[in-house]
Protein 1
Amino acid sequence: MKKHTIHAFALAALLSAGSTAAFAQYTGPSSIPQSTVKQLLDSGTDDQKAILKGRIVSHDGKKHYTFEDSTGRMSVEISDKRMPAGQAFDDKRQVELTGELDKDRNKVEFDVDSVRLL
């Protein structure tokens, strides 16, 4: 077998293994402050890091969801790779979202870096 064929085979094996593997996720303390929807909407600043605890109550198309906590609702953006690997959940499941506020003149949205099921 030629050298480049072996490399291509090894790369294909790594990619296929990575697509089904669950990755470890840190669950200890964080220096990022916990916030609420109301706090972020009322006084949050663009690119502010935050942790939200509540529920994802609807899927609004592609990467767009609605998040709710006891203080209100807001739009969140979650790419598929940020969702918990191999774990389905619904609108009744409590989650913890870590990410940053994306605030401009036309919209306010929370860009999610990680989703943790509680």
Protein 2
Amino acid sequence: MPTLQETLTLLNLENAPRLTLCRATELQDAHIPPFLPDVPALLLDVEKVDREHLCRILQTAYDADHPLRLVLTNNSVTDVNLGLLGVNELDAPVSAILVPALPAGSSVTAFAEIVAHLRAPDGCPWDKKQTHQTLRKHLLEESYEALDAMDQNDPAAMQEEFGDLLLQILLNAQIANENGHFRMSDVAKGIYDKIIRRHPHVFGEVQVSGEDEVLQNWEQLKAQERKNEGKLEKGILDGVPLSFPALSQALEYQDRAARVGFDWDTMDGVLDKLMEEIDEIRAAETQEELAAEIGDLFFVLVNFARWQKVDAESALREANKRFRARFSYIEQCARDGQFEMRDMSLDEMEACWQAAKRSGL
């Protein structure tokens, strides 16, 4: 069995500028590798763990064709791609594995350094001028662009937009750090503790029957946390941001109310309420009454969508997308006929609309 020094010599790592040492047993109960992927890592005591499991954990951060260097217990070295780690038969057991680094910038830590550089004296004039308030609109824009990518189910676009969102988070955290308010490590630690605390059914001994009970426990835990911190007791709906889009806000209100039992027993109650709101719209006598009843109808439609497990905001965005595509088709019909759209009759527009539907738009 090679010693650590012998292993370093076999791999020519005696003078490596950066190297993470990690016992392979640390990955036994892990779900992702516990080290930065843009720094080479040397896994020791590999003979004590299941190599197939080790292969699965490493592939959460590295491609299957990522090269590895294996040190065998007979003091020899062999190279193998990660995907073959768990299936290759070797002449001797493996004692250590060198996992070469991914390209520079492949970790959140490396990106945090870039963001800090942008704000440094020798950084970018635009980035140095930003505040939480000036970045607010950019965070909102990037959030909507990420939602667009998710609506389109476009993995490449999601990857890019999630990166843009990460920039906004790190930039705001860097500004807070410079102002002495909090660091990015505080952000990470805060959400780390919160997730563990609010998932006692995963990280503790609590048993739950399903998703509904998880959400009920979540609200109870939040209330207990506020009480322990000496904060004024908040209403169940107080945590829903007032800046939420209206449909999303309505859905969140209804979800939270349902967690404490304020909900219809069956879908029939929702449908009856829907018909009641339509009748009240018909009976409205003033513009103010009409606006209020239309708002109530929207609210009940969101509730109907919730009962059907449909996200109302996403459903309306999809409807908007379909309308835009079909309306553009009508415009193209007008251009093909070399006349103005305003000169088309409603029946002609409807015919184009139906043609757009048949084409899959």
